[in-house]
Amino acid sequence: MSDYGKLLPQPTADTQPYWDGLKAHRLRLQRCADCGKVRHYPRPVCDACYSMRIEWIDASGGGHVHSWTTTHHPFHPGFRADLPYTLLTVDLDEGVRMNAQLRGLDVGQLRVGLPVHVDFEQATDEVTLPVFVPAR
Amino acid sequence: MSMREVGAVTGVGETQYMRGTERTPLSLQLEASLKAIEDAGLKPTDIDGVIPYGHGAVAEDFITNFGIADLRFSATTPMGGASAVASIQCAVAAIGAGICNHVLLSLGRTGYSGGRIGARVQQMPQFRLLAEFEMPSGAIAPAQLYAPMARRHMELYGTTSRQFAEIAVTTRRHASLNPNATMRNPITVEDHQSSRMISDPLRLLDCSLESDGGAAVVISAADRARDLRHRPIVVMGVAEGHPDSPSAITQRPDLTTLGLAKAAPKAFAMAGVTHGDIDVAEVYDCFTYIVLCQLEDLGFCKKGEGGGFVQDGRISLDGRLPVNTHGGLLSQAHMAGMNHIVELTRQLRGEAAAQVPEAEIGLVTGYGDMGDGALAIMRRT
To answer: Contact B54/B9 with Cβ under 8 angstroms?
Structure first.
């Protein structure tokens, strides 16, 4: 843990279930317990009906590429050894998006709409991060 | 109450822009402020409102250093690179409400010699969601967060890196004419294409500078402005706009539309002018793509047509819409767009280093904090 040099999340009571889910290799999303709108990133209020009642659902893990970037410049020393790395913006099947690194695919094969699936990588004892791999 | 023609730019000031300094941001900010106040023909004690750029000097610094006995108004507009132009709206609103007469907008920074951008954004409260959900994956700096917007635009509309290069090359040519620009050696499209990749599709020459310096602007009540040193540059229309999903670009319904798209129709309507009336445009240029996208969101062309719009010399000094005549953030200095307001003022006074002949009406935009936008349209008198 102590030699993990990258940035780590600092979960709050509003977001802890998301991180707990990743640790258990589940991608969990917030859903409004009143109107049913799924939202991401986790936050206290539903922007459709202003309800503060929340439930957590397990996402399918599937989605499609919305956009991407491959980073070549070391903006943070902890990520220098990973360069170049590719960040995907993905439309999840549940209708929200998320950002995570790409694994297992050549960047040249990326295109808008490419199907991908979430996977999980342990960062520290406490934190597991999502990544995307090509859909099976 | 309409804010149309309530306020005018009466003074502008800049330090020497640098890449390397021992000076403090406060010292640079106060030097630029004194120059702007002097340029207006005012005394420092005439300033009765201040809107300092965030993360720098605060109202207390101006009271202490200038001996202002009765500061009547202070505010900040925390919108990153949109702050400076949004401050014009804030200043005009305060003036129109009768609170104050001479509002000082100012910024000083050591973006080159002090903390770099990747380290700064991690600390900002408006990026809390990014800090928790994107930065751990390595999405840290604006270049990385904006690159997917550019990539999406390219994929949807066929926009090319060579079109981004048109913006970089043209802006550098303008900077080469400006004695107070830090990057004055001309570049070519090929130089752009061979510059190192930062975060695909953004290359080094798509990115703005990190600079040391200060810039400031005095906005005065229009009825007080006429007696000052220069002919006032009147604010005809001004507005700010915030994008959907303002802090997490990832969640934005349309990655290629910025907050400026909401501000532009309001500012044009307030000003009572059309796009054909605009003689010069100072467009916030933290990245080349952001200029292209704003030209669309301003309404100069349709969404998706920005790549073609910037070609064929259209945005050059002698083109139909000269853009960033001072060299912008890309080649003059990164003064968070305060330098764009300074330049528009000089253009409309007819005293710019690279002057657009007969410039009568112009606009200045701000863009920042992942998508916030602001627009001011001004005219000479």
So the answer is: no
